[in-house]
């Protein structure tokens, strides 16, 4: 170690900012020398062990890269801060750079993992507020912070993590909650397996009320009920609906799905999904506007068909009717024809066919282009009811029974197809969400696991 490095170490140990700048005046690259070393004991590492918050802040400002540099033991300054109980310095570091919550040190442990291991619930809460994505990080053993909290018997930290998963409103929160709660470590054990191994009845009682998979198998095809040794834990699991692995049929693997014959419904769904992913957001919005305008225009024909409808007078006592004073159609009809279109059967049938096709195409376009998920599923219901109301209105104003019966058939077929498409799209969307390649955790799990 040269003289400059010795003096820099002394400045860090004493927290002497004046000495720091004296050294910088003597050698403008005094901090750069350490930055070029792959593993180095920087001034930030030294001050992390002894305190001196102001000196640490000054170094962070001058050389931000020091905060994520590993020393020879595989620790960053923020890891050392946590090991030495320097909470104020940890929070200052995170306040300056929130991504430090996710910096990985020895064995892939992040400061978030350290907080879970040590049961620092205040730090956990602050880390989650500063960097919510930190809960997705896993160690070299493929353990999440929840696994670590259970192994370390930090139940309160475990409750904080589960509580955050249940309450978070970030994008993809539902999928994230299921993924983290059912994440497998290198042995294939979920947190439910770990709780059973630890005979942690409190954690088991908490987990059975969440979205954890009670019958998930590890790499040895054992469920949590199989590996539970405690009688109380077994009772809790059994009452919640957990089963033994031997009684659960393994789901088809991803290779099995690829080898299977593709069905017509799958071809349709793949076609729809490819359309969704190929169009731009501007194109999607334009198509939705046009489809909505077409649907509105075609629906109007069911309310006001060309030529109008036969009018009836409420005072005719179910006998004859006379035209309404406001009616534009000067036609007298029996009460049985009231509300029926004045068009001939042939004209009405032609109008009905083209109009219905236009409406169905526009509705299916909106269905295809509407983003999937919970909101998309909710919107599919009013679209379905919209078409049903249109078909019923056309049946009511139909001038003869044959055309009316045709609308009944059309409504039935549309209902079956629409509900089948909605159900299939929902299944595929959940599958795609579960295997989203943008998330490192889910990608790794789909490769290492036994199931698609």
TrEMBL record:
<feature type="repeat" description="ANK">
    <location>
        <begin position="107"/>
        <end position="129"/>
    </location>
</feature>
<feature type="repeat" description="ANK">
    <location>
        <begin position="187"/>
        <end position="219"/>
    </location>
</feature>
<keyword id="KW-1133">Transmembrane helix</keyword>
<keyword id="KW-0812">Transmembrane</keyword>
<dbReference type="InterPro" id="IPR036770">
    <property type="entry name" value="Ankyrin_rpt-contain_sf"/>
</dbReference>
<feature type="domain" description="PGG">
    <location>
        <begin position="280"/>
        <end position="375"/>
    </location>
</feature>
<feature type="transmembrane region" description="Helical">
    <location>
        <begin position="348"/>
        <end position="368"/>
    </location>
</feature>
<protein>
    <recommendedName>
        <fullName>PGG domain-containing protein</fullName>
    </recommendedName>
</protein>
<feature type="transmembrane region" description="Helical">
    <location>
        <begin position="405"/>
        <end position="429"/>
    </location>
</feature>
<dbReference type="InterPro" id="IPR026961">
    <property type="entry name" value="PGG_dom"/>
</dbReference>
<keyword id="KW-0472">Membrane</keyword>
<dbReference type="Pfam" id="PF12796">
    <property type="entry name" value="Ank_2"/>
</dbReference>
<dbReference type="Pfam" id="PF13962">
    <property type="entry name" value="PGG"/>
</dbReference>
<feature type="transmembrane region" description="Helical">
    <location>
        <begin position="286"/>
        <end position="303"/>
    </location>
</feature>
<feature type="transmembrane region" description="Helical">
    <location>
        <begin position="375"/>
        <end position="393"/>
    </location>
</feature>
<dbReference type="InterPro" id="IPR002110">
    <property type="entry name" value="Ankyrin_rpt"/>
</dbReference>
<dbReference type="Pfam" id="PF13857">
    <property type="entry name" value="Ank_5"/>
</dbReference>
<keyword id="KW-0040">ANK repeat</keyword>
<dbReference type="GO" id="GO:0005886">
    <property type="term" value="C:plasma membrane"/>
</dbReference>
